[in-house]
Amino acid sequence: MKLSYEVAVFLVLCVTIAESVHPLGKFCNKRTAISNGSKISANIDSLLPELALKTPPNAFATSFSGEDEDRVYGLAQCRGDVSTKDCSSCVQDAAKEIKQRCPNEADARIWYDYCFLRYNSKSSFIGEVNTSPGILYANVKNVSDPETFKKVLGALMDQKRGEAVEPRNEGLGKGETQLSPLSTLYALVQCTRDLSQIDCAQCLALAVENFDHFCDNKKGCRVLYSSCYVRYELYPFFFPLTSDNTTVKP
After folding, report:
1. Which of 26, 28, 139, 186 could form an SS bridge with 105, CB 3.0 to 4.6 Å?
2. What is 135-233's CATH topology?
3. In angstroms, rounded to a whole number, what is the distance separating the alpha carbons of residues 72 and 94?
4. Do domains 17-120 and 135-233 have the same CATH topology?
């Protein structure tokens, strides 16, 4: 699969589980500069607190503000395993930071570990698959047995993708599998809830394809699109945490 030039690739060593304080990435569409006299900026200011308020109870919300050519559409979603409290905190941070980081653009997106938020004034994107731009994070360390690792990872991802498209799971699939007697592989996939089952499956398939291109044999990898998210690690990163050195999240 050939990825768009807009895809930003970041290589980082993932060693700890962090709260959603700093964004994983952002996208400010420079081709959607807000013109002087436009009501779009004011509509964004109205939309963002509404998303921050509506999202936490269900971990997902869509909304719009304004009329005609100045209307702004928005979407926010939290990772399906986080608490309502953490969801609320994350979306509030996202609503604050996205306007500060993209002050003059009518199309903006921001990714955190616990949540994602976007808005666009040009057209409604609700229900549409979007895989560009994307953000990729890869662990800098390689696995010791690539052949076995790929086989186990492929089976686990197939299983979690299958779970995510089931309506009762609301786009979320997460779980673990034994990689060796001393090693466990963890995986989480999620689609935004506005997608159909077919579109969710398509987005996740495209995201997982990046494993071979950018995360080949790596101990951990994350692919973040506007419509879906996939991640695997050799340590527990989703809730409830169950390793000997962690506590279960209430």
Report:
1. 28
2. Killer Toxin P4; Chain A (3.30.430)
3. 17
4. yes
The torsion defined by the Cα of 20, 25, 30 and 35, in degrees rounded to 10, comes to 0
Q: Tens digit of pLDDT for each residue in 33-43?
A: 999 889 999 99
Q: How high is the pLDDT of residue 21?
A: 66
Name the architecture of domain 17-120. 2-Layer Sandwich (3.30)
**17-26 confidence digits (pLDDT tens):** 334 468 999 9
Q: Does residue 233 surpass a pLDDT of 70? A: yes
Q: Count how many residues are written for the chain.
A: 250
DSSP 50-108: HHHHHHHHHTEEEEEES-GGG-EEEEEEE-TTS-HHHHHHHHHHHHHHHHHHSTTBSEE
pLDDT (0 to 100) of residue 143: 97
> Which residues pair with residue 136 across a beta bridge?
9, 223
**pLDDT confidence of residue 17:** 35
Q: If you write DSSP's letter for every residue of the chain in order, what string do you get?
A: -PPPTT-EEEE----S---S-S-SEEEE-GGGBPPTT-SHHHHHHHHHHHHHHHHHHHTEEEEEES-GGG-EEEEEEE-TTS-HHHHHHHHHHHHHHHHHHSTTBSEEEEE-SSEEEEEESSS--TT----SS-EEEE-SSBPS-HHHHHHHHHHHHHHHHHHHTSGGGTTEEEEEEEEETTEEEEEEEEE-TTS-HHHHHHHHHHHHHHHHHHSTTBS-EEEE-SSEEEEEESS--SSSP-STTS----
